[in-house]
Amino acid sequence: MIAAVFDVDGTLIERSMERIFLGFLWNHGELGFKNLFNLLQGAMESILAGQSPVLANKAWLRGKHDLMIRRLARDCFETEIRPKLLPAAVERLRWHQDSGHYLILISGSLDMLLEPLAEFLGIRAWFGTKLETHDESRMLTGRIAGLHPCGKSKERCLLDINHAGAFDLRRSFAYADRYSDRFLLSSVGNPVAANAEAGLRRFAEKHDWLIEDFVNPERSLTEGAYGRI
Fold first, then answer.
1. How far apart are CA 222 and CA 197, in angstroms?
2. Beta strand pairing status for 210-212 and 125-133?
3. How far is the first Cα of the chain from the last one, in angstroms, to the nearest whole number?
4. Beta strands in the chain (DSSP E)
5. Which of 1, 55, 72, 169 has its CA 20 to 30 Å from the CA of residue 40?
């Protein structure tokens, strides 16, 4: 099978889903100054551990009940995230679906935000950031459980999904926007730098990758986009 792998933040949606969710919880009174203190504390812990103080920091959810946050994540998706999906990016995703390609989402965003997105788009496979809970209480610890799909770890996620060799990665597609996503993009035969930041755009130009701009579709470089299937 041919796979079509999509990053989410910056690729399917112009903003970060997690930042939208943080604002949603704050506006609905579900976060307070204690959570902001946890966020700052988590940033320091991430820096000391050699991790990103933004991407690897989920301490703002510490002490929240897993089921409640999942319910609020669905509410946030319907009211705040779904309307912000980029039409041109969704159109490209639908093209892959119509072509019989197997759709996969791989993102550092919270898996509880990816789940309603995947359901809405009709995608059966996704890999996001899972959060650790206390076994009995189901309260979130603010720590990441398992692999954090960021940078080179995204490539690892795709290879784990394809451990049985179901996909022909040489004929498959991947879409992402950040320079740190170059490892994921390099693992397929049809990499697409979508809404690419400057570093990835330069890398894509150097390696003759397709460059697309779903934020401003009229600027997309679509000529020959599907010639390598």
1. 18
2. unpaired
3. 11
4. 3-6, 102-110, 125-133, 140-145, 173-176, 190-194, 210-212
5. 72
Architecture field, domain 3-219 = 3-Layer(aba) Sandwich (3.40)
48-100 tens-digit pLDDT: 556 554 555 688 888 899 999 999 999 999 999 999 999 999 999 999 999 99
Contact assessment for residue 48 and residue 85, using Cβ atoms and an 8 Å cutoff: no
Closest of 145, 146, 142 to residue 60, by C-alpha: 142
Sign of CA dihedral 106, 123, 216, 188: positive
- 161 closest CA partner among 197, 201, 124: 124
The predicted-structure confidence for 26-53, as pLDDT tens digits, reads as follows 999 988 777 676 666 655 665 555 655 4
DSSP secondary structure letter of residue 83: G
Which amino acid makes up residue 206?
K
Q: What is the pTM of this model?
A: 0.87
